[in-house]
Amino acid sequence: MSNGWTPERRAKQAQAIQRWKPWERSTGPVSEEGKAISSRNAFKGGHMQRFREMARELNKLLRMQRNSLEG
User: Fold this and answer.
1) Terminal-to-terminal C-alpha distance of the chain
2) Domains of the chain, residue spans
């Protein structure tokens, strides 16, 4: 395998995880600040839409300026 995990290593790790059961100790965020931070985990940005709007406005202004200079 390209990631270095052989089927044997994967099986051994799976058995270890079943013994450890980390999900039983997982509590997630406790403080309000931690909850607020984790609530934004899925946020992907949204910056491209704002960039497109700004580019459209800039193009509009440049067209207006070009038209006023041309006459």
Assistant:
1) 67
2) 46-71
